[in-house]
Amino acid sequence: MNAFIGVSKGELAKETMNYLKMEYNTEVPIDDRIYTIEKDGNLYRICNSRDIPRFVGKNFSYGITGKDNAEDERISGNGAFDYIKNLGFSKGNIVFFGTGKKVPKSPTIVTSTYYPNIAYEYGKQIFGGEPKILVVRGATEGYVPSIADVSLDSKFSGNTAKLNGLIELENVFETSAVLIGRKGLTIENFEKNLGRK
Asked: Which domains, and CATH codes, for the chain?
């Protein structure tokens, strides 16, 4: 086996398939119901995008996931992987949303299971105190202002936040699909594994 590559299922799967085909002439039939695919000497594991940075450096040689997921895992202290390449698709932003009212120094921040570390670290930097993090499954918009002061979530169009009376308070960082790899691996290693000389 050349490389063990983690690939996100769901929203990123189709764009990842297109990327591998266009850049490397590698057709990987990514399917949310098929978990392991062997192709041209490489093993592809199809899994939740949140899990990929947890496994790169342990089991996986490489992974294709969202920068948002990789960054949350990096902030948690996982130093086993490096960013190798920004892939330029699935672009969005990680944003603090609120009602426009003044945010307390130590706010309650509601976020999804994807971003608890980003919410804490950037909440502390931006608002100045020790934030309390409320982690929920699914949409975060309904928790502000009744339970939380602000929410931290991904923003693509921003329509959902707007419909729920929320505005963008702070753009934390841009996010997109990224290729990450075990410490010490490079884009040249990845390309060699996929057959590009």
From this structure: 4-90+176-193 (3.40.190.10), 92-175 (3.40.190.10)
